[in-house]
Amino acid sequence: MIKISLGILVGLILFIVLCWGGCRGYTAFEQRHLVRRAVGFLGGNNYKEAALCARRALQMGPSVEATRIMAQIGERTADRTAIDWRQKVVQLVPNSGEDQVALAATALQFNDVATGERALKNVPESLRETAGYHAAAARFAEAKKNYGEAQEHWRRTVALAPEDKSYQLQFALARLHADEPSARDAARADLQGLRSNEQFRAAATRALIADGVTNHERIDKIRVFAKELQSYPEHTFTDRLLFLDLLRQMHDAEFTSYLTAIESDAAANAKDLSTLLAWMNGAGLSALALDYSRSLPPDDLKKWPVPLALAESHTHLSNWNGLEKLTKGEEWNHYNFLRRAYLARAYREMKLDVAAEHDWGAASKEASAQPETLSTLIKTVSDWGWKKDAVDLLWTLTKFSEKQREALQALYRHYNKELDSQGLYRVTARLAELEPEDLILQNNLAQISLLLGVDTDRARKIATNIYQKEPANAAYVSTYAFSLFSRGDAAKAVAVMDVLGVDRL
User: Fold this and answer.
1) What is the mean pLDDT of residues 469-488?
2) How would residue 160 be classed by pLDDT, with cut points 50, 70 and 90?
3) Which pLDDT score, from 0 to 100, does residue 332 have?
């Protein structure tokens, strides 16, 4: 009986172990299968099915591959959740320099500079000597307009991946900003060489055209490049507009016929039509844009983003009655907040203040639901010169974590330009909370607090702290000295400042 009982018990344990192992094995197999399917769908640009497979795989348990796929889907569909997925990948494989670089690139795609820079800093020194790392670092340097640093990173990128033509293109583009004429000439020569490559010829030609315009080269020389760009099968509608603009600047007889051809082609595509109308507005041809729009079917004029371009045409011509007629009682769907804003603009210009405030309030409320729509409205009213409204919207934007730094920096620039000390203090205090390790920010906060006499005890503690960390920094020394002077210790303040020497004083 004992043997039988033990045998049954052992057999039961073995059965449970086999079932558990089989279940785990099946789950792992099914998860790998779903990931492979997701990769296949992603390769075919079927993002919906790829996401379904990847999410099903994640429901079975953590999967680095499935998480990366979700991040890639977000990147390709311009969905900010891609940043969150990249951060989850980094949490799963914290020692992966490649995934830190991927997070940085994704953050830059969505203009989240702070997250991207932190990701690059987290890449171990031993893993930084890769083409991917230097390419990401170069793009961040370019975003901050630090072209010298960007050129050095692109140089390292090309050295590490000499066969990659895309890196060669980026290196050439970076060197166009170089101070040395020889470096710029070398960049132009490299771009000329890339024009023989079908994959990069359009981008290289566009770069040469832009460089020619920047350096005020003869328009007829630039026109040769622009005309050749039209002959490439991969040319875009924007490339055609570039050529059209050159014809306009040259007062070329071909301008009228070429514009007529573009008008005919653009009518079939809402995006191209909107781009053409926007170009006309920028070229001072808003009246012509409205005349052209009257020849098109009314239904075509309601397709987004055509209404926005037409609203700009009316605005450029100060045709407020026409703008009211265009925007009143219509629906711009996801961009309805812009319709209400343009209607408010028309009412303000016509001195209909009550109606203007009603529609502006509605526009602000609708836009405030999402950071992207809020950013769009801020840019729009800033272009109109509505400073107060733009500032109010920027403070609303600071409530969104992903846009907080960007909004506060814009507010800092505004208050600095307006010489508004109270506004600067308010912004600096918020920025210092977000970046407690940034000594420059902390120093700015201490300075302005002491100058305004606001929260001076805290300001003196900050000034003392940063002075102790970097006693040789003249900016921090002077803030610390002023903190001493403001509490009546003039002798010590002078002694602290004397250490700097005559030149630095």
Assistant:
1) 93
2) very high
3) 92
DSSP string for 284-314 = T-HHHHHHHHTTS-HHHHTSTTHHHHHHHHH
| pLDDT recorded at residue 349 | 96
Q: With b meaning 16 or more CB within 10 Å and e meaning fewer, what string describes 432-457?
A: beeeeeebebbbbbbbbbbeeeeebe
What is the amino acid identity at position 268?
A
The token pair at 382 is 């800033």
Q: Which of 193, 201, 197, 250 is nearest to 223 (CA)?
A: 250
Q: Is the separation of the CB atoms in 45 and 37 below 8 Å? A: no
Distances (CA, A) of 292 to 260, 295, 313, 318: 10, 6, 11, 18
Opening angle at CA 87, ends 81 and 91, nearest 5: 145
pLDDT tens per residue, range 235-282: 999 999 999 998 898 888 899 999 999 999 998 899 999 999 999 999
- Contact by Cβ (8 Å): 335, 302: no
* Cα Rg, the chain, nearest whole Å: 30
Q: Is the pTM of this model over 0.90?
A: no
The H-or-E segment that residue 368 falls in is none
Element (H, E) at 193: helix 181-194
Q: What is the mean pLDDT of the chain?
A: 90
State the Cα–Cα distance between residues 101 and 86, nearest whole angstrom: 10
What is the identity of the amino acid at 369? A
Q: Pick the closest to residue 421 from 391, 397, 444, 393 (CA basis).
A: 444
Q: pLDDT for 405-438, tens place per residue?
A: 889 999 999 999 999 999 999 999 999 988 888 8
Which pair of tokens denotes residue 330?
């219509």
Token pair recorded at residue 496: 């602290």
CA 326, 327, 329, 332 dihedral sign is positive
